[in-house]
Amino acid sequence: MGRKSSCVKPTLVTILTFVALYAFFNTFLTPINPNPLDSPFSILSSYNSPNPSVKVYLYDLPRKFTYGVVESYLKARDPSVSIPVNDVKYPGNQHSAEWWLFSDLIKEDRYGSSVVRVLDPEDADLFYVPFFSSLSLVANPIRPAAVNVNSDIGSVYSDEEMQQGLVEWLEEQVYWKRNNGWDHVFICQDPNALYKVIDRIKNGILLVSDFGRLTSDQASLVKDVILPYSHRINSFKGEIGVEGRNSLLFFMGNRYRKEGGKVRDLLFQVLENQEDVIIKHGTQSRESRRMATQGMHSSKFCLHPAGDTPSACRLFDAIVSLCIPVIVSDQIELPFEDAIDYKKIAIFVDSDTAVKPGHLTKMLRKISTEKILQYQQELKEVKRYFEYDDPNGTVNEIWRQVTLKLPLVKLMINRDKRLVRRELIEPDCSCLCSNKTRARPTF
Amino acid sequence: MGRKSSCVKPTLVTILTFVALYAFFNTFLTPINPNPLDSPFSILSSYNSPNPSVKVYLYDLPRKFTYGVVESYLKARDPSVSIPVNDVKYPGNQHSAEWWLFSDLIKEDRYGSSVVRVLDPEDADLFYVPFFSSLSLVANPIRPAAVNVNSDIGSVYSDEEMQQGLVEWLEEQVYWKRNNGWDHVFICQDPNALYKVIDRIKNGILLVSDFGRLTSDQASLVKDVILPYSHRINSFKGEIGVEGRNSLLFFMGNRYRKEGGKVRDLLFQVLENQEDVIIKHGTQSRESRRMATQGMHSSKFCLHPAGDTPSACRLFDAIVSLCIPVIVSDQIELPFEDAIDYKKIAIFVDSDTAVKPGHLTKMLRKISTEKILQYQQELKEVKRYFEYDDPNGTVNEIWRQVTLKLPLVKLMINRDKRLVRRELIEPDCSCLCSNKTRARPTF
């Protein structure tokens, strides 16, 4: 009996120890915040799925559409360059999201992401097409007038042929045909990327910078995702404050732009003689990036006028510089606007008002230091959304945005299948229209 | 030492016991499937948030907008009726979702729901306005030509005054004004519910039956949620099978309808002399519901032609009867279509084809028993989506659908705040357009 009892006790202790160990690992070593994007600023965080369970299939495209584009880009600049097959490096570029997303999906450890990569397309919710469409557009330093068949590096790279080739390849794929492309994701961050084939892929989720060159039946806030450009100047590592930020307003960039960007020349005219404003004409170069870094890190406000299209990488340079953006771009669409209240981090001025002589500087000078510090604090909190290299940054947020499209994708797939032939007076569209009381419609 | 040792052991056992108990409760009594809507059919289930964390504030409307509507309805039919204040019962009605959702939100135990009710509006993501708008529309048996001020039950109930009163009340609320109503949820299931004020509340998420009486800037698949009607006949409790289902096709309902419903009379003409088809003119009554129950439970297929608007409760009667719906309603929109592939549970025939003599019956007779059983099996699996009284049914699914709108709601709120005045050539809308290759557009 005594022996039996002493036998039972250690066994009980052993069992309890195992259960306790299981409890310990299960309870305390389970991540308590499985979604590292959670923060007070991410107002959507409360309903983020903590399980990364939207399944994405990464198309194994022919190499020419991915690494091959980088190789073509580098060879077009230096035909003698030697590129190790296993160490292809994407060149520095404001449209490098295509590289970041591709690199992310092929990574082993993707903890914290809203999507998981699946290797069997049967398991996939969404299909990612990793063509480097923005780099492809600029692979040739100057787009060739005609293909030079006698070139000793073979035929000159043709972006248009690449676009056509991609869609021809895709149209052979069973998963493309199955749902008319609704569940496919394309990246075309340069406003001209994929322009030749956009009508053939427009059912897909497009990852874009803005809708400047896209019609309303090709892309929209409802179907697509607005991406930030990669910032091209260094992040500001210091604390918030106005010390060291001696200039009021800073801008450096091309003075002359097409379309909405025409406002730039007018802004130069009203601002270039203001003593606390630094406004300079400059084009992309290492030296101008150095000067822009210095300017943005030492100014309170940074001007962001429209470019050829409403968006430009300068906005994101300003954000990571904690330089409060002053946005003069009436048609701009902004990344992750469900999660970020841009009114807290930027100042919006319509073009007509902004070009009134003296108006902009007068308005900015009136903003108190306390208010400036508030803006800076908010900028600091959202900064990571614009850092592609932050493990808790842009890449994860882009995937989260993509997952939010899935319910409408599934709806459109199911609805398309059962729609009958019918006479329609208007296109069959479901829309979300902004509050017109704030706009000044001419219709 | 011996004493110490014997003291340590029980203490260790005690500690381990507590840890083990904690482990047990934490590990095994935590729901392993926190979202009871998960099923192989719910293709979206994998990314449902397992935490019911979208926060909804239920407006404490003046009583006249909720229980008061029921009282007015009952008193208009029997002025002598006595209604206990704490036991107001909503009358049987195909538009009873307004009652189900209200009753659900005021329940204590809301386990399994995608939304939690919060009592402080500051905490809310969304605001639910529980006006019984559909019952209000029919509170008077016949809408009065003029208000009878001499009536001894006070003035005659006026739905229009109620609608106006609701919006006036709402427009005084701070949370309504704060975001221009984008984060408010309204139920207006009868196609005419809230018709008088719809333009003032159209920013909100509307819970509707279809878009038959709504313009594209008032409601859409993107912004709003399509609800099923409450089925009005009893569910079929038996197993799948064709035994006992001797008729091919069944329909009972009003032969004459306006607009899209004109197809009904044409369908009667081509079907009424077919021997295995039961097609009867009938209006709502207890007796006709009994006959419809019997007919739908003993037929293989159930016809669902458009009514005055594209939807009708007959579709949901058919589904819960496991009677395969034959849908002849070219503009129909269907509830929960992201989660349900209706092509698997119903047959869609365009109106032009359906009214060709002999066509419909010939097509249905060709469908094999095996295929019929497949349809029935799928119907059985989705049936719970159409059962308002199922704890794992319609009510939870409606809330899940509402939560899916939140990212776009937040986006529109933030975007509206920072939009500048601008000249627009077209309305400022973001759209999702269906694949036009399957439609026959006339534009």
What does this structure look like?
By secondary structure, chain A is α/β, with parallel strands linked by helices. Helix content of chain A is 34%, strand content 13%. In chain A, strands 2-1-3-4-5-6 form a six-stranded parallel β-sheet. Chain A is globular and about 65 Å long. The termini of chain A are far apart. The model of chain A is unreliable at 1-10, 21-52, 143-154 and 437-443 (pLDDT under 50). The interface between A and B is large, with 84 and 84 residues.
Detail the topology: elements first, then pairings.
Two copies of one chain form a homodimer.
Chain A: H1 2-28, E1 54-58, H2 67-77, H3 97-106, E2 115-118, E3 126-129, H4 133-137, H5 159-170, H6 174-178, E4 184-187, H7 198-201, E5 205-208, E6 225-226, E7 247-253, H8 263-271, E8 277-281, H9 286-297, E9 299-305, H10 314-320, E10 324-328, E11 347-348, H11 351-354, H12 359-365, H13 369-382, H14 394-404, H15 406-418, E12 423-424, E13 429-433, E14 440-441
Parallel strand pairs in A: 1-2, 1-3, 3-4, 4-5, 5-6, 7-8, 7-9, 9-10, 10-11
Question: Which characteristics define this entry?
Answer:
homodimer; 443 residues; alpha/beta; 6-stranded parallel β-sheet; 5-stranded parallel β-sheet; 15 helices; 14 strands; disordered C terminus
Structure, briefly:
Chains A, B: This is Exostosin GT47 domain-containing protein. Chains A, B: InterPro entries: Exostosin (IPR004263), Exostosin_GT47 (IPR040911). The structure is a homodimer of 443-residue chains. With 443 residues, the first copy, chain A, is of the alpha/beta class.
